[in-house]
Each structure stands twice: as structure tokens, then as C-alpha cells.
Amino acid sequence: MNILDEIIAYKYQEVAERKELYPVKLLEKSLYFENTCMSLERYLLRPDKSGIIAEIKRKSPSRGDINPYVSVERTSIGYMQAGASALSILTDTRYFGGKNEDLMTARKYNYCPILRKDFMVDEYQIVEAKSIGADAILLIAAALEPARLKELASFARSLGLEVLLEVHSKEELDASLNEYVTVVGVNNRNLKDFKTSVDLSFELANYIPKGITKISESGISNAQVMVELKEAGFHGFLIGERFMYEGRPERAATEFIREYKALLAKKPVTA
Ligand SMILES: O=C(O)c1ccccc1NCC(=O)[C@H](O)[C@H](O)COP(=O)(O)O
Predict the structure, then answer these.
(1) How far is the CA of 131 from the centre of ligand 1 (A)?
(2) Cα(13) to centroid(ligand 1), Å
(3) Which residue's CA is the closest to the ligand 1 atom numbered 13?
(4) Domains in the chain, ordered, with CATH?
(5) 217 lines ligand 1 (CB under 6 A)
């Protein structure tokens, strides 16, 4: 069983337990539930922003501990001050050391789109995402049958949440893209051996239809690569470890974005 299958099997169990503990009726009473979501897509396309979705990631299956005691308040505020377009908060506890409260903390201190980064298999998690203040959710093509993915995407949109569809191949893209998805992410991490290669993003860039906002996810380790991804047509860049390995991730993000902007400024302007 690969790690994604293991995580997904666990999620079904987790959802069943959470439904008992916190019924939907309770989640709907959350103050955030009535909030109007902020558009991830719109923020990624804003020219005054970097396009970075900066992630809070305490640990991961591939790396173990990364930054387990990170301050979500300080880091999320610092990421946005550095020029990130949006935040990604991992809420899975068992594999990533995150929690719903991390997202609620980020929501409390920031006015920006927030992606709930988790492994969605059930409508319950989408209601939960809305109740903790998320603006967008992730749906992973490798984890869901296309018809089921479409149902979940439609349900998310009915609550005002945007959907980031994550793919690893052209086949997944062709099978799972549907009318409820406006943002597609190519995940550069191979979930069988955990190796990351941005080549996958370059390979798939032209297959993603025009009009869809494109994100490159995982393994983006330097500003030069991000410039090249932008030139290849990517609007967004999901970055976790590159920042989170630093004691002060927000400072790493500030330096990274400064370097990125300097590289862009050196590029000749094309008509
Ligand atoms: O990061 C992992 O080890 C991992 C393993 C299994 C499923 C998902 C995993 N990561 C989630 C992500 O997609 C990344 O956290 C995100 O794209 C940021 O990647 P990075 O910049 O490489 O931290």
C-alpha cells in the first residue's frame, strides 16, 4: 500500500469518528460558517503578489519532523507580509502534525485566502473546512474516483469554497477535471518514492486548459525555478519545506520573494 492509500484509508475512519463527536449541525453553528470565502484564484492572479501559497507544515511522511513547534500566528502573518498570495494549512494530525486549530489561528490573524490542505473523502470534511474558516479545499485525483471527485467539488462550490484539483499525470487531469474546478495543481512529489521533480510541472503545463489557474506544488526550492515555472504558464506555487525548515519560516519566505522579484526585474520586457 502506498502512503496516499494509507492516509486515505485512515481518513475514512477519522471522518466516521468525527461525525459522531462533532455532528454537522454543530459545525454549521460556527461563526465562520456564514463567511463569504476569499477567492484563491483571484489572489493568485493579482499582479502585486508573488503567486506563492505559503504552507505551514510541521512534519510529513517523507521527512518526519520539519518544524513541529512553529508559531502559526507569527509565521502566517509573516508569510503574508513577505508577499505570499495565500496560505496553505495542513490540518491532518497523524501524518502532518497539523490541526484544525492551526487553520483557525491563521484565519484569525490574516485577511487572505486559506487553503485547507487535507485529504478530502467526504462532504463532512468540506463542511468542517468551511466551519474553521477555510476558503478553498484540495481534492486529489489519485485519491478519488472522478465521479466522486465531481460530487465533492460541486458540494464545495455550493458552500462557496474554491477547489484545487491536484494531479500527478495527464491521465488524472483528463479524467478528473470538471466544471466545478477552476484551479489545478501539478504535484511534483511522486507519492511512491517521495522524490520531487519540477519537470512534471513543465511536462503537464500545456495540457491544462486555458482559463484554468495553474499551480505547481512541492519541491520548489529556489527562486530561479519559480521564474521558469512562471514563464511556463504557472500562476501559483505551493511551497512548504523550503520555508519550514528554517527556524523562522517567514524570514526565509521574505528572502525568497525578494530574490524572485529581483530575478523577474532583470528579465527583458516582452511586448
Ligand atoms: O510531503 C509529503 O511527504 C507528502 C506525502 C504524502 C502526501 C502528501 C505530501 N505532501 C503534501 C504536499 O502536497 C506538500 O506539503 C505541498 O505541496 C508543499 O510541498 P513542499 O514545498 O515540497 O513542502
Answers:
(1) 24
(2) 22
(3) 218
(4) 3-266 (3.20.20.70)
(5) yes
Contact (Cβ atoms closer than 8 angstroms) between residue 44 and residue 213: yes
| Coil, strand or helix at 106 | helix
Q: Amino acid identity, residue 134?
A: A
Ligand 1 pocket residue status of 61, Cβ below 6 Å: yes
- Here the cell at position 138 is 484540495
Query: What average pLDDT score do residues 166-176 get?
Result: 98
pLDDT at 173 over 60: yes
Dist CA 200 CA 177 (whole Å): 18
Q: Could you tell me which residues are beta bridge partners of residue 163? A: 137
- CA-based nearest residue to 230, from 255, 205, 251, 249: 205
CA distance 21 to 149: 25
Task: Indicate if ligand 1 lies below 6 Å from the C-beta of 91.
Answer: no
- From atom 9 of ligand 1, which residue's Cα is the shortest distance away? 60
Which ipTM value was assigned to this complex?
A: 0.98
**Ligand 1 pocket check for 242: Cβ under 6 Å:** yes
Confirm if 168 and 142 have CB atoms less than 8 A apart: yes
**219 backbone φψ class: left, alpha, beta (φ>0; ψ -120 to 50):** left
- Give CB contacts under 8 A, 24+ apart, made by 190-197: 191/2, 191/3, 191/4, 191/142, 192/2, 194/3, 194/61, 194/62
Nearest residue (by CA) to ligand 1, atom 22, is 218
Interatomic CA distance for residues 17 and 122, integer angstroms = 13
Cα distance between residue 129 and residue 116, in whole Å = 6
Q: Name the residue with higher pLDDT: 139 or 2.
A: 139
Here the cell at position 33 is 460558517
The conformation of residue 144, written as its DSSP 8-state character, comes to S
